[in-house]
Design a protein that fits this description.
There is one protein chain. By secondary structure, the chain is α/β, with parallel strands linked by helices. It has 2 domains: 2-181, Ribosomal Protein S5, domain 2 (2-Layer Sandwich); 202-383, P-loop containing nucleotide triphosphate hydrolases (Rossmann fold, 3-Layer(aba) Sandwich). The chain contains 13 helices and 14 strands. The strands form 5 sheets. Strands 11-12-13-10-14 form a 5-stranded parallel β-sheet, sandwiched between helices. The termini are far apart. 34% of the residues are buried.
Amino acid sequence: MAHVQAGTVSHHPSGDRAALIVDIGVAALIRPHVVISGVAPSRGEEITERVAGALGASNGAEPDWLWCGRHALRTLRVDVGRGGEHATPTSLDLAIAVGILAATAAIPAVALEGVVFWGALGLDGALRAPRGALAVARRVRDLGLTLVCPSSEVQGLLRWLPDLRVAGAVDLEDLIAGLREGLRLAEPLAAPPPPGRPSLGLEDGAWSPEVVDTAVAAVAARKPLLLTSSPGCGAAMLAARLPGIMPAMTDGERLDVATRASLTGLEPDAPAVMSRPFRAPHYSVTFAGLRAEAELARGGVLLLCDVEFFSGAALDYAFCLLPADVLLVCSSHAPEDLSRVRGRHPFRFEAALALKDGRLRGQTTKQTTTAEARARVAAAWADAGTAHTGATPAP
C-alpha cells in the first residue's frame, strides 16, 4: 500500500484553528470480502478500511494471502461480540488487527492471552488514542488483565493507576515486534501531581450575608437551591463559586471525575478535572444531554440557568432522577414565570433565595469568607456521615 500524509488547518465557527493530519492510502483494488458483525455496517466498513491500511503499511504484518488476487473471493469474518454497538468505533481497530494477525499465524496466538488491545489505527499503522482511556484502564485493572494501548497514554494512565499492567506501542509494527519478543510492561515515572483549577472565592462578589448564608446552608444540607434575581445581580456568579466551598475531593472521587471526563475527550490531568465539577447546560439541552451533564457534574454543582425555559422531560430528570451527589442549583430572572416549574414539582425546592440587588446590599456589611463557608460545609457533611462519600444526608 502506498501511503502519504497531508497537513491542513480546520477553522471552527468560533474562530479557533486546529492543525489536522489527513491520511491518504492507496491499496490494491482486489480484497477479500470482510464481514464485521456486532457493529453497524457503515462502521464496519470504516474499521475495515483502517485495519487494511494499517496492515498494508506495517512491514511483515500483512499476511500473504489476505490481499492477494488469487484469493479474492475469500471471506474474512470478524465478530466484535456483545456490546460492540456501544463501543467507540475506532477503539476496535487494534483488537481486530491483532486478531487477524493471530488467525493468520503472523504473530503467536499465545501472546494474546490475558491481554486487552485498545486503540485506533491510522492508515500508516500509527496507534492513536480514542476517548475513554482511563475508563478502559480501570476496567482492565479490575479484571486483572494487561492493557496494550498507544504509548502516548501510558504514563498518564499510570499516574492514576500505579498498579495497572500496561504496555505501549507507537505503531502496529512496533506492537508486532513486542508480541513476538514478549511485551515489556511500563513503569510509572516520578512526576509532580498536576495542578488543579484555582477555585473561585466568595470574596469575588459583594453579596449580602443573607445571600451567602442561605447558599452555604443549601450546600451543607445537600438541598436544591433556587436563585431568583434580576439580570446582573450575580446568581450564576454565586453558583459557580459553590464547588469552591465544598471539601476537597478524595483520591477516589478525583479518579471518578477524571474517568468520566476522559469519556468526553478531556485529558485526565486537565486542571478542570482536578477540581470539583461545575456544569451549566443551556436550557435547550435535550433529556439525553442533561443526563450526560448530570453525570459530569457528580460530586459538584449542576446549574440550570433560566430554569423556566427547560423542557418538561429535562425538569423531570433534574428534580426526580438526578444522582444523589449532584447539588442542583436553579436560577431564574423572571420569578413570575416559575408557575410551570412549581406546578410540575411543587415540593422539590427546599430552599428559596432572592438575589435581587443582593450584590449592592452586601457592600456595607461583613460577608462570610470562603474558608469559613468551607469549614461549615465540611462540618455539616461530617455530622451527616457523608464526608467524602458523595452520599446525600437523610432528610
